[in-house]
Design a protein that fits this description.
Layout (H helix, E strand, L loop, with lengths): L3 E3 L5 E3 L3 H4 L12 E9 L4 E5 L2 E2 L1 E7 L2 E6 L7 E3 L6 E4 L13 E7 L5 E10 L4 E6 L14 E8 L5 E12 L12 E9 L7 E7 L9 H11 L8 E8 L2 E9 L15 H5 L5 E5 L3 E6 L10 E6 L1 H4 L5 E3 L4 E6 L5 H19 L11 H14 L9 E5 L6 E3 L32 H4 L5 H6 L2 H13 L1 H30 L11 H22 L15 E7 L5 E7 L17 E6 L16 E7 H4 L1
Parallel strand pairs: 2-8, 7-11, 12-17, 26-29
Antiparallel strand pairs: 1-4, 2-3, 3-4, 3-6, 4-5, 6-7, 9-10, 10-11, 12-13, 13-14, 14-15, 15-16, 16-18, 17-18, 19-20, 20-22, 21-23, 21-24, 22-23, 24-25, 26-27, 28-29
Helix pairs in contact: 2-6, 6-9, 10-11
Length: about 625
């Protein structure tokens, strides 16, 4: 039970410390082990927060010769009380450490009581602006979670100001995601027994905790969701970042949101699910290899909507109970997720009519789609150069009483804006050219409706109109929105980096803000290319240079190093790189990440390049 009691306006950290810290200095120390502190947390209003009638415990992280402790946003200040500690911690000037600075690394000396003083570093990192979610998994551990089964836990939600919004609320949790589930930092789904509003968002029973492990900035999903909303898509995902603590251990920065669904606080069209719920006394699974759903003893009526469907890969299709296959594609029926076999047959037949009309384009072909929603969704996918566009998590919906298919909502953008490297760093390439980049046996054929539509003059006119009308939205994205998001989460993002590192294939730069700069650079370049492509009179060119110079070093085949000094923001053409024997070497690579060098990545920091042999790359 979380309670509030008025005490002082400080955080007292009971430095029973260093029974835990002392193991750092022993020969048995293992790099990366956890370090434990217990502290009493005070919010800005002087309220102390107790968790389960004990002081809130935060697990630290030992990394690179420093002990890090991760404080939630509601913490106001820190005072160390060493009176209960057998060991004493001193600053380099010999004074006792009592008021450590926040978000800084400081040198300390630990008096072990044996006459020996051991040097070390310590850092108290504090988030800002974000809600805090604390999960208590009882006897279970996060490592035991799967995507198939829920486990019961308790959840507490605390505002940045220290207000307790939820107090040990009973919830269920399971894993979620496709490729993201296999990252070190896991995404989760939490489910309440009733609809609740979290972080001032619209109420829901189910909430997603997106790890954004493939996104160096932790911003791409939210930027895409908010852009879809700003350009007027009928429904866009509402989201906000939170700091997640699990069993008193900081787990990182997460994006809290709802997955696309039909409902009063989601895609607000008629839901068939509630109708079907009244027929579920006897129901069995049905799958004839083309459609899958449920067989009801008393069959619910076949209704014309609403339906929410998603284009899936082969592997992902198998995870959903309801769906259908065409001769080219796999679709899941996300809502209703208890669709009868006849309802699946209905939406299957309708989608095949849409597919046929787009393949046999004539004057009536566009009458079966909502051209505005298709244009807006394509624009978001194209602008963010989404790796999964046309392939997976590509949603459509049908409203009741209308034989029209709508595109949206948008979803899944952690692998966008060049995060996948290679061809996806080219800000003058279209997702339409990337549509067949995967073998059939892996992804099945990417959905080509946007490709077919792009040949239609009316559709292109709609794209140009939507783009032109929303130039102020895109300009605000570059000039304000990206930096606003960075400022909101920068401390939380830094904490996340200490815990999880850079992540798989993420980021072009070591410096976090340089990846944010690249986001603005990439989107501005892409917007200018779209202006030229669609003959729109607008200019998104900005001076991204900060006026500094950086060193580009080349490790030559003879081991010598050649260095050049270049202005910040320089793009180096491939032909200006030092020559090499292409019968031996495959090309220049970044020495820290081993990614191939790309002209499309401007120089925002010092860079060292090395040659890789052909045998290394094969």
């Amino acid at each position: 039970m979380i309670n509030k009691a008025i005490v002082s306006k400080r955080i007292v950290i009971i430095y029973s410390l260093l029974l835990a810290l002392i193991c750092i200095f022993s020969l048995s120390f293992i790099k990366g082990q956890d370090v434990y502190l217990i502290y009493t947390a005070f919010g800005a209003g002087g309220n102390v927060i107790y968790l389960n009638d004990n002081d809130l415990q935060i697990t630290g992280k030992d990394k690179d010769g420093c002990s890090y402790f991760f404080l939630p946003a509601f913490v106001s200040s820190v005072e160390l009380d060493q009176s209960l500690s057998e060991y004493k911690v001193f600053l380099s000037d010999g004074s006792l450490l009592q008021y450590p600075p926040i978000n800084a690394r400081i040198d300390i000396n630990v008096d072990t009581g044996t006459g020996e003083t051991v040097p070390w570093k310590i850092s108290f990192l504090k988030s800002e602006n974000l809600y805090t979610i604390c999960l208590n998994t009882n006897d279970s551990t996060m490592e035991s979670l799967t995507k198939d089964n829920y486990e019961s836990i308790a959840l507490s939600l605390i505002s940045p100001d220290g207000d307790i919004v939820l107090d040990n609320e009973a919830v269920c949790i399971k894993g979620r995601g496709n490729s993201t589930w296999y990252g070190d930092k896991k995404p989760y789904e939490i489910k309440f027994d009733r609809s609740l509003s979290l972080c001032k968002m619209r109420p829901s029973k189910k909430w997603q905790l997106l790890a954004n492990y493939f996104d160096s900035t932790k911003m791409y999903n939210k930027l895409a969701f908010d852009t879809a909303d700003a350009i007027g898509m009928e429904y866009a995902i509402e989201s906000d970042w939170i700091d997640l603590y699990v069993n008193k251990r900081y787990l990182g920065n997460y994006l809290l949101c709802k997955e696309p669904d039909i409902g009063k606080t989601d895609l607000n069209i008629t839901s068939i699910k509630k109708t079907n719920d009244s027929f579920t006394s006897e129901v069995v699974n049905y799958d004839n290899g083309i459609i899958k759903g449920y067989l009801y003893t008393n069959e619910p009526p076949v209704l014309s909507g609403g339906y929410l469907i998603s284009k899936e890969t082969i592997d992902d299709y198998d995870k959903y109970p309801c769906g259908f296959k065409t001769d080219r594609y796999y679709f899941s029926v996300r809502s209703p997720n208890n669709a009868s076999s006849n309802q699946v047959k209905y939406i299957d037949s309708f989608v095949k009519e849409v597919d046929s009309s787009l393949r046999n384009m004539n004057g009536d072909s566009l009458s079966m789609i909502d051209i505005e929603s298709f244009s807006k969704r394509f624009l978001v996918e194209e602008l963010f150069y989404n790796f999964d566009a046309l392939v997976a998590s590509y949603y459509y919906y049908k409203k009741p009483g209308k034989d029209v298919l709508y595109a949206g909502p948008v979803w899944d953008y952690d692998k966008s804006i060049g995060e996948v490297k290679g061809d996806f760093l080219n800000y003058e390439a279209t997702i339409l050219d990337q549509a067949y980049r995967f073998p059939d046996e892996w992804y099945k054929t990417p959905l080509d409706w946007d490709i077919l539509l792009y040949e239609n003059e009316s559709y292109q006119a709609s794209l140009r109109s939507v783009f032109r009308d929303n130039i102020p939205v895109f300009r605000n994205l570059i000039e304000n929105r990206i930096d606003d998001c960075y400022e909101k989460i920068k401390y939380s993002r830094d904490m996340d980096y200490i815990v999880w590192g850079r992540g798989w294939y993420t980021g072009q730069y070591n410096d976090v803000y340089n990846n944010v700069r690249f986001t603005k650079f990439f989107l501005a370049k892409r917007l200018n290319w779209l202006c030229r492509r669609w003959d729109i009179d607008a200019d998104f060119e900005y001076d991204f240079s900060d006026g500094t110079f950086h060193t580009v070093s080349y490790i030559l085949p003879d081991g010598k190093i050649k260095s050049d000094s270049v202005p910040d923001g320089t793009q180096i053409p491939m032909e200006l790189l030092p020559s090499y024997d292409d019968s031996i070497y495959s090309g220049w690579y970044y020495s820290d990440t081993h990614y191939p060098f790309s002209y499309y990545v401007p120089i925002f920091e010092d860079v060292t390049l090395e040659l890789h042999t052909i045998s290394e790359e094969t």
